[in-house]
Amino acid sequence: MMSSTNEEDPFLQVQQDVLSQISSIRPLFASYLRIRSLASSSTSPELTSARAELETALSSLSEDLADLVASVQAIESNPSQFGISDHEASRRKRLVQEVGAEIQDMREELNKNVAGGGGGNNDLPDPSSFAIGEGDGGDAYNEFEQQQQMEIMQEQDRHLDGVFHTVGNLRRQADDMGRELEEQNEMLEVVDDLADRVGSRLQTGMAKLHVGSISTAQDDAG
C-alpha cells in the first residue's frame, strides 16, 4: 500500500500512466526480440517497423519517467516538507530506479542492432544514482503492480455482480410476463367457450323462429 494519501498528487497520476505504458511496451519488446532472432538482415522491413514502434514507445515513456525522476529528486532531501513519509519516498525512488533500469535494458538491446553502436536519445539519469537501503520493505514496484491487478479484478467482480443482478431482474420479469400470458390465455379460453355457447343458443333460437314462421304461414294458408 502507498503511504501517501493525497489522491491529487501529480506523482501518483504520472506514475499510473508510466506503469500502464511499461506494461504495454513489454509485449512490444518481446515481439521485437522474436523478430530480430528470426530476421535474416538488420534491414528487414518487419524488424525496422518493430524497432521504430518500440523506440517511439520508449521515447514517450522516458519523457514521463523523467518527470517522476525530477519529482523524486525534489523531495529526496526532505520528504516530510511535502507531506510524504520516508517509506513513500523510498518507494518512489525504487519505482523510478526499476523502471529506469528496465528502459535502459531495452535500449541496450536496441543498440545491439544499430551499426556503429549508436543509441536512442536517453535523457534519464543513471538509475543507480538513487541509493536505496535494504530495509525498505521488499520490492515496492512489484507490490504496487499486484495491488493494481487486485483492484482491476475487484472492479471486474463488481461489474459481474451488477450483470448477475440485472439478469436476475430480467428473469423475474420474464416469469411475471409468462404468468400474465398464461392467465390471459385462460381468460381467452373462457371467453371462447362463452362465445361458442352463445352462438349455439342463437342458432337454436333462429331455428325455432324459422320453424314457427313456417307453421304460422301454413295456418294462414289453411
From TrEMBL:
Coiled coil start-end: 51-78
UniProt keyword annotations, A-Z = Coiled coil, Golgi apparatus, Membrane, Protein transport, Transmembrane, Transmembrane helix, Transport
Concerning CDD domains, the annotation shows: SNARE_NTD_Tlg1p-like, SNARE_Syntaxin6
Provide the Gene Ontology terms for cellular component.
Golgi membrane
**Signal sequence annotation:** none
**One Pfam family of this protein, by short name?**
STX6_10_61_N
**Lineage top rank: taxon:** Eukaryota
Asked whether the UniProt record includes Nucleotide-binding among its keywords, one would answer no
Where is it located?
A: Golgi apparatus membrane
The family database entries (Gene3D superfamilies) matched by this protein are listed as: 1.20.5.110, 1.20.58.90
Q: Where is this region: Disordered?
A: 114-140
**Domain (T-SNARE coiled-coil homology): residue spans on this chain:** 150-212
Q: Name one GO biological process term.
A: protein transport
Residue ranges crossing the lipid bilayer per the database entry: none
Q: How does it sit in the membrane?
A: Single-pass type IV membrane protein
Q: Which family does it belong to?
A: Belongs to the syntaxin family.
The protein's name: t-SNARE affecting a late Golgi compartment protein 1
Which species is listed as the source? Hypocrea virens (strain Gv29-8 / FGSC 10586)
Source organism lineage?
Answer: Eukaryota, Fungi, Dikarya, Ascomycota, Pezizomycotina
